[in-house]
Design a protein that fits this description.
With 329 residues, the protein is α/β, with parallel strands linked by helices. The protein contains 16 helices and 10 strands.
Length: 329
């Protein structure tokens, strides 16, 4: 309860509360606790949560930021793009609030600095002797209709064809095919039988996903924010987009999705380092076949390109965030 939260902060001398993203959780109760503790002088700071903090403020407007003492995001470029998009929708004051967000990088990526492929394979129980292709299985986007999801996931449909193409790609290179799943991914037997290993979220520090991308030689699968971890680990990638972004993305965030992920040098589409294949419309079966038969993609990203939407990948994002929290105390 809010009263209990206030008493706990007073008892333990808590001066700041850190949350992940801008939406106080649990919904409703979290907001009440936040309001009550802030009246006693406790500061609230929001750490970056991929780019969800920017989506939230574009959806909700200035009220999403007004209640926070500190709001951080991953990079100055993504923050400035969000401010530019917010101005016509929510006004100049909202854009100014967004520009006050502190770019710190992504704290989740900090452990990568001390990680290596051999150790990550040991941690996950993978052999050292074969290449590994990591495949991101399919989550259902929040805005996608049930019918579009059924068409994509059905036996013999585009998703099943994508998994089979990945299996062929791995076999051509003598590689293991590893599925990276999560509890919210509806994995079906007609696709999962194609994988040599299946892993989920097992640990939070280091995050299992970081070990997964470090263990891999190539990362592919259903287009997602896993591209952030894969890019941070400098792994070549191939992403499969199963439906037009406008069919599932919130209209306020769609221009950011296009700029940060879909455009040239975006997280899914970076000059051979990460390839994007559209698995909808016409010609997608031929596109899958061409990819499955080709040599492993390779490319190079400059430091600027790699960090544009993620912020610096230097193991110091957590320190930058905590420095920003100290500054408001």
């Amino acid at each position: 309860s809010p009263a209990a939260a206030v008493a706990t902060c007073k008892s333990f001398g808590i001066r700041a509360i850190i949350a992940l993203g801008l939406e106080p959780r649990p919904a409703g109760g979290g907001a009440a606790v936040m309001a009550a503790t802030r009246t006693t002088g406790v500061k609230w700071a929001a750490a970056p949560c991929i780019h969800e903090e920017l989506l939230y403020v574009l959806e909700q407007g200035p009220k999403a930021l007004a209640v926070w003492d500190l709001a951080a995001t991953m990079s100055g470029a993504s923050r400035d793009l969000a401010a530019e998009l917010a101005a016509p929708r929510w006004g100049a004051d909202c854009a100014q609030l967004i520009r006050r967000m502190v770019p710190t990088g992504f704290p989740e990526l900090d452990p990568l600095v001390g990680m290596n492929q051999e150790a990550s394979r040991v941690a996950l129980g993978f052999p050292q002797s074969k290449p590994i292709v990591l495949f991101n299985t399919a989550p259902r986007p929040h805005g996608l209709s049930r019918w579009e999801w059924i068409k994509w996931m059905r036996p013999g449909g585009p998703y099943a064809a994508t998994v089979k193409a990945a299996r062929h790609f791995a076999d051509r290179h003598g590689a293991l095919l590893v599925a990276k799943s999560r509890g919210k991914h509806p994995d079906y037997r007609w696709t999962m039988r194609h994988f040599d290993y299946v892993i989920g979220d097992g640990t939070w520090y280091p995050y299992t996903t970081l070990d997964a991308v470090m263990a891999a030689d190539h990362v592919c699968g259903v287009a997602s924010a896993l591209a952030i971890e894969a890019r941070a680990a400098w792994r070549p990638q191939t992403w499969f987009l199963g439906y037009p972004p406008e069919s599932y993305e919130h209209s306020a965030f769609l221009p950011m999705r296009e700029a940060m992920y879909l455009a040239p040098n975006g997280l899914w589409n970076s000059r051979g380092f990460s390839n994007l294949i559209l698995v909808y419309g016409t010609g997608w079966r031929d596109a899958l076949a061409r990819w499955a038969d080709q040599l492993r993609p390779a490319g190079f990203l400059s430091v600027l390109d790699a960090h544009l939407w993620t912020g610096p990948i230097d193991g110091k994002a957590s320190a930058r965030f905590l420095d920003a929290v100290k500054a408001i105390l």
